[in-house]
Every structure is written in C-alpha cells, then in structure tokens.
Amino acid sequence: MVLLRVSLVCLVATAIKAVPNANIKRQVTQLRSSYDFIIAGGGTSGLTVADRLTEAFPDKTVLVVEYGEIEYAPGVFDPPSTVWGGVGGFASFFTLPTLPNPEVNNRTGLVLAGQIVGGSSAVNGQFFDRGSRFDHDAWHELATAGDPSEEKWDWNGIFPYFKKSVTFTPPPASAVQEHGYTWDISAYGGTTPIYSSFPPFQWGDHQLLRDAWKELGVNDPVECNGGDKDGLCWIPVSSHPVTFRRSHSGLGHYAAVNTTRSNYDLVVKHQVVRVIYPNNNPKNGPPLVEVKSLIDGQLSNITSTGEVILSAGALHTPTILQRSGIGPDNFLNSADIPIIKSLPGVGSNFQDHSGPEVAWNYTTPLNVYPLPSEMSNPSFVTSATSSFNSIPATGPYTLSMSNSAIFLSLPSTTPNYHLIANKILSQLFSPETFLPSSLHSFPAIIQGYKHQLSVLASLYSNPHLPTLEVPFATGTSARAINLHPLSRGTVRLNLTNHLSLPVLDYRVGSNPVDFDVYIAHLEYVRKLINTTTLQALGAVEIAPGVERTDLKEAVKDSLIFSFMHPCCTAAMMPERFGGVVGTDLKVHGVEGVRVVDISVLPILPSSHTSATAYAIGEKAADIIIKEWRGGKGRGKGKGKGKGKSRRM
C-alpha cells in the first residue's frame, strides 16, 4: 500500500510538471495547416473528448482551443486559506453577473465558470455526485420524444460512462471507522487519472447534523452514485486519494497524456469567435473555426478536415453558435448577424439550481472539536498545513467544501406534492405564459417546454426522485436547493460587444410553481431545528424566523440564483421541440458541428454537474469514434501539414 501511494503521488507530481511542454501553443502561427478535429474549449468535457480521440486515432490530429491558460488549480479549501466555506484560492474564472430578476425584487446574482485549462472542473466545489436513474431516463425521453435513436442517454446508456470517467479509491479503514463511510464499489470501476475519494477529515459537528437528519426519518443508503439517490448520502470529492489535491480534466485528460501524443495540440489564450461556412451554406461543412488571440487581438481561421466540437460550456457554447448565425432568428436579426440556421433553442432553456436558506443559532455551546472557528488559531492552521503536505495528506484541508448531503423527493418533503404536480399539469394549456416573450413566436420552443412540464410533473410525483438537496459539513445554516426548476432563462450575446461576456437572464421564479417548491422545501428543512438532537443544544431559528409568515417573501430575500450549475442552453431534443442537438450531439441542420458539454442536457439532473460533464465527454467520444471507424465521418485529411492557418 505504501508503494502504491508513493507511485500515485509521483504520477500526480509528474503530471503537474508535464504541463508546460512543447504541445502547448500560444500563437496560431505555431499550429498545423489543418486538423481533423477542432475542439472549442479545454474544459471538463472538451479535454475528455480530446484525450479519447487522440488515443483512438493516432493518425488524426486534434486541436483544443482554450480561452484560459495553464495554471495550478488549488482545491476549494487549500492552504493558505483560513476561512472554510469562503472563496478559497481559485484558479482563473469568468465572473458573469445576471440581469435584475423582477420576480425576486429585481435582485441580481453572479455565476462563476472556469477560465483555465480544465474549465470548471478546476474551480468547482469538488462535489462529485451523479443524478438519479430517473433523471437520465427523463433525459432520454425528452431527447427522443418517441423517435427511434441508436444512442441511448437513459440511465443504462450513460451509467457505464460514469463508471469509466473516474477512478474511485475507497477510504482507509481508519477513516471508515471514524466517520462511518459507506460505498458500493460496483458503482465505480474506471482507471482514468480523474480521481475521487472520501476525505479523511470531518468537522466536529458533522455527525451532529447527520444524527438530526436521521431523526427526521431520512434514509441512510450505502451508495448514492449507483442510480438510486434517496436519503442521506456520502459523496466522493474530486481529489487525489493520497495528496488530496484537486483532480481536474487539465491534469487527468491533458497533462497526464499529452507528452506521448504527437497528434494532440492545445492553443491557449484564444477565444473561439464562430464557425464559418463557405458561401454561408450550413451543408458545406465542416466549417472553418475563427479564433481571436487574447494576446494581440489577431483574428485567424483554422481549418478542420473532420468536424468541429463545441465544448465551451452552457454559457459560452450558445454564444459561439449565435455569432456563427445559428440561433433564434429574431435575436440574430437584432444583432445584425446573417442567419445560417434558425435554431431558437440556442441559448434558450437556461436552467440552474437555486434555493433559499434556513439558519439557526445554538444557545448552548457546542462541545465538539474541531470547528471551522479553529482556523483563526495560527497554531491550528500551521498544524493543518503540515498535515495537508504530508503523505498521505490529512486534516481539514482535505475536506474541500463538503461530501455529505440529503436528497429527498417532493413526496418525502410535503403531503401537498400532488397539488404541485397538478399545478404543473394545468400549465400545459398555455406553457408560453411562462417563457420569455421573445420566444412566443417559436412553436417548437413552446412544444418543447410543454413536453418538459409534462415530464417534470411526473418526476415531482416520483417518491424516489430527489427534488431537494441540502449539502452540509458543519455550521448553523442549510440551503434548500431546488434540483428541478421549472423557470427558464436565456443566454444571449451582448449586443454592444459580441465578444464580451454573454448576457444572462435567469428569470428565477418566472414559473410561479417554483415558489411552491421553494416553500415546501424550506418548511421541511426548518424541521431540522426542532429535532431533539438540535434542541438539546438550544437551537433557535433566525432565518427565515418563526415569526415570519410570508414565506414567499422570505424566499425572495435569501434565494441564491445559482449554485454554479448552469446548463441546458443547447438542449438535446428534436428540432421540432426546440432542440439544438440530436442524440448523436450533432447540431440540427448544419454539417460538421457537434456540441459536447453540459449545455446539451434538456433538464437539470438531481446532482452537481461535474461528474455528468465527464460522462458526457466519455460517451460523446465513443459516439464519434464509432462513427469515424464505421466510415460515416466526413473528411479524410490527416491534418499533418505544417503552415499558417488562414488569417482574416
């Protein structure tokens, strides 16, 4: 075991040192004259695909174009940070403000997304869970709408890729004995250098909160990553099992493999502007890829002889398509962009997890150790830092944000769940009422949303499908996260500057049933305070407060718009239902372009989105490899010629 751990540490150290090498490009003049595959975005899904394609096709060339830079990506709670739960030593990220939200007192929010090789897997909270089997079965239902499909995105179709995408290491016996960790190894089985593990540390009051949830009757399953997700879950974190440094795609799918792949190029500090079809003919693909250097502002075209894969995430993939003339025609006209293909779903169907807060105080001091307040003690921090730098790492810096949460269905949280489901069904008569007015002229969008509402009404009635998540590790507050929102927003180009950050309109609460769900969840979570476990410590509710009777206004006051899980802006649904890609991930009506990232989800899963992004990348790679090996792929060039790409 000691030799194994040392070898794993050496592997990670070698991978980190391997990052700055000759394959990294910073100028278009360093690139080949053409590439078989061009991937827009070196994030979670994009680098997964690049790794698999360069491995499967050593005679084909792959270029990844990344906005950010190669840099070290610390964990969400690493030294020298001394504030657990605050913003730690993040790597570079985009900070995107939201438009004022009229349904929530015109409040605004912020969304973060990775601006680094590794994407959001390099800046997220490291919570590495998967959705319920019912989420994925619903995904496939929405993706096909009854049409035959060779590619299956239901639970049975994606579970093998969840397993393939990560290497899970069980915790040592000492951690199991101390914390009570449980897992089912059959839910795992990958050998890729993307790691997940259980931390060896928990805060002193963690077990107190687990006991309180159990007192409320919350189920305590052995494993929640195997498709059945109902109860009090132990969740792995995306950390190396020995060093407990962050594991992300920039390490596992680039640094760990690129030194042996002469066909794998990465150009950093370049923005993908758009794809360009010769003669504006969307059937004349694959298109050129226009990029802008963030170093000198130079625009250049790069040639793909095979296909272009957009993997810039839910916030940037739709804006690449919109700049390319692919999107809602009324918006493209307002942006003075020639229409290549009218696809109103591009940048529509925008969703994220959101939820209000419940908070309390204790009137009796907690007699547990340690608590996050110890981080104000310099000697404690010194000891914690030393423990983190040991092999294997131990102590509070191994924890990340959390690896525990409850996941409960709506029937488990309120007896009125059927009333909520019936309200959703009543909206099927006029679904456009709850969509942005700019989409009312698109029957396909309305039909697609109607189909979503029908599916979501069924999910809300399912006693085994979680609609509520409450993650926790310590403290005196709890966020009641709504896992399946009904409201739909938009992501649009900034009309003043098409290359600047996109405009995010969350429209939180624009479907009023979301407030019914928020309130039901909030009322359930408040029960935690009244358990004998917490009352033994004199727990007193301070938010929303027992005296507060207007819970809808309380929700508006404390609602977090985004738990950093934006999705669904290039949804996998038929075009007649407002979809953007098919089950093969190809963009409807244009040649040579696929989307491979979290934007292809039609609805949010009952999980954080990192593990799903990896699984999408793995499954997408298999789809592409199968197609090209079967002779269906377009383009026969090997992309090995040297020379400058065309400049504009």
Structure write-up:
With 648 residues, the protein is of the alpha/beta class. The protein has a domain of 266 residues: FAD/NAD(P)-binding domain, CATH 3.50.50.60. Helix content is 28%, strand content 16%. Strands 1, 2, 3, 9, 10, 11, 12 and 23 form an 8-stranded mixed β-sheet that branches. A 4-stranded antiparallel β-sheet has the order 8-16-17-19. Strands 18-15-22 form a 3-stranded antiparallel β-sheet. A hairpin with a 5-residue loop joins strand 11 and strand 12. Helix 2 runs parallel beside helix 17 and helix 3 runs antiparallel to helix 13. The chain starts with a helix and ends in a 19-residue tail after the last helix. The N terminus and C terminus are likely disordered.
